[in-house]
Design a protein that fits this description.
This protein has 417 residues and is of the alpha+beta class. Helix content is 61%, strand content 8%. Keywords: GTP-binding, Initiation factor, Nucleotide-binding, Protein biosynthesis.
């Protein structure tokens, strides 16, 4: 199936990752019963994350013709004979009005219907809330047929369980790596002792017990040469820190299967590479959507990705930490698409501030207030993170300083009630 970039402004971007199928139409019937069947409307609507009934109805509104989408068969029909190019142009208008974010033009948005019967689009990339023009004919259809609400409760719990399992597995993997390294060190020590015993026995055999002094004299330079070679080997082992030498040592100590698991200290780790990549993107004035693409392309665990983002954004922060967070709020919003990511963000704040200066620690409540007011963090998530940290006995300064903001949240809620 031929694909194309979503949005006409992105059609020439070879690296654009949001794509949809090219429209396929078929003219059916004749005379007064002629109609246009949009063959792959279901696939197009799925790529746009919108119900196929919305796009079909929009065609009818714009063309002034009757339109119908059959939920059971997935057939989309618009009365009359219509050219594929004309329908594609109308679909492009639909994308601009009901799919793309008005701020960053990213198509990763969600349709929200408020209690006041207004429609808006919430961008998952930059967090911007775009208002839809309620004078458009399609808005009445959307109000009568609102999008299905996501199952928040069970999905969030499942996400939290999966995150806890992932953290447990990561801790188990770290312990396994420590054991492997200890075993490798013991094996190296044992092998060096065995080599020493072998050399001593060889010397005794060469001496023959009652050999002449000439034989001892002739063999002693050889033994001293062996000792010198051994000393040279030891010096090379300690001083040669090149990547190639490190690989050879790993290959000697570990099997082929476990050697790949060892991270060479002489090479830049994937975490460091991600930090540098984020800094490079920020230096090139990347948008929130572009930064999100960088983060989502990383193969590191989500917790490491969040910590790398914090290190790149706020390395060495002290007094004025809250102002820095406010300036980079859009980047943080792009990295927090769901509640699980919010927990990781709060954990990153705690671990980052524990290593910062006292001035940065004092601003933890202000930082939480900035992220809360900017709709980056939700009240329930903040309270949950704080309660779990306290229950786990975590007594870091960041958690202690967050107590004031959590108490303010709870008191504000009781005042509203």
């Amino acid at each position: 199936m031929a694909l194309q970039n979503i949005g006409a402004s992105n059609k020439d971007d070879a690296f654009y990752r949001y794509k949809m199928p090219r429209m396929l139409t078929k003219i059916e019937g004749r005379g007064n019963g002629i109609k246009t069947n949009i063959v792959n409307m279901v696939d197009i609507a799925k790529a746009l994350a919108r119900p196929a009934s919305y796009t079909t109805k929009y065609f009818g509104c714009e063309l002034g013709a009757q339109s119908k989408f059959d939920e059971k068969t997935g057939i989309s029909i618009v009365n009359g004979a219509h050219d594929t190019g004309k329908l594609a142009a109308i679909l492009e208008n639909f994308i601009k009005k009901y799919v793309q974010c008005a701020n960053c033009r990213n198509p990763e948005t969600e349709v929200l219907v408020s209690k006041k019967q207004t429609i808006s689009l919430k961008c998952a990339a930059c967090g911007f809330l775009s208002d839809v023009d309620m004078r458009d004919k399609l808005t009445n259809f959307i109000l009568k047929n609102p999008p299905e609400e996501k199952k928040g409760g069970k999905d969030k719990k499942a996400m939290r369980r999966a995150e806890k399992e992932r953290l447990k597995e990561g801790a188990a993997a770290d312990e396994e790596m420590k054991k492997l390294r200890k075993d490798a060190a013991k094996k190296k020590g044992c092998s060096s002792k065995e080599n020493t015993v072998k050399r001593v026995s060889t010397r005794k055999k060469a001496g023959g017990g009652g050999g002449s002094s000439e034989e001892e004299h002739s063999t002693s330079p050889t033994h001293s040469g062996d000792a010198a070679d051994e000393d040279d080997d030891d010096v090379q082992w300690q001083t040669d820190t090149s990547a190639e030498a490190a690989r050879k040592r790993i290959a000697e100590q570990l099997s082929a299967a476990t050697a790949e698991m060892v991270v060479l200290s002489t090479e830049e780790t994937p975490y460091d590479e991600l930090v540098e990549e984020i800094k490079s993107s920020l230096g090139n004035a990347a948008t929130a959507a572009q930064l999100k693409a960088v983060l989502s392309s990383s193969t590191l665990p989500a917790k490491d990705v969040m910590n790398a983002l914090f290190e790149a954004l706020f390395h060495g922060a002290g007094k004025g930490f809250a102002n820095d967070v406010k300036k980079n709020r859009e980047y943080l919003a792009a990295a927090v698409p769901d509640e699980g990511a919010q927990i990781l963000l709060l954990q990153a704040i705690g671990s980052y501030c524990s290593e910062c200066s006292a001035e940065a620690l004092k601003e933890v409540p202000v930082v939480l207030k900035v992220l809360y007011d900017g709709d980056v963090l939700e009240e329930e998530t903040i309270v949950q993170w704080y309660d779990e940290a306290v229950a786990a006995g975590e007594c870091s300064k960041a958690v202690e300083n967050a107590r004031r903001f959590v108490e303010w949240l709870q008191s504000a809620e009781s005042d509203e009630e």
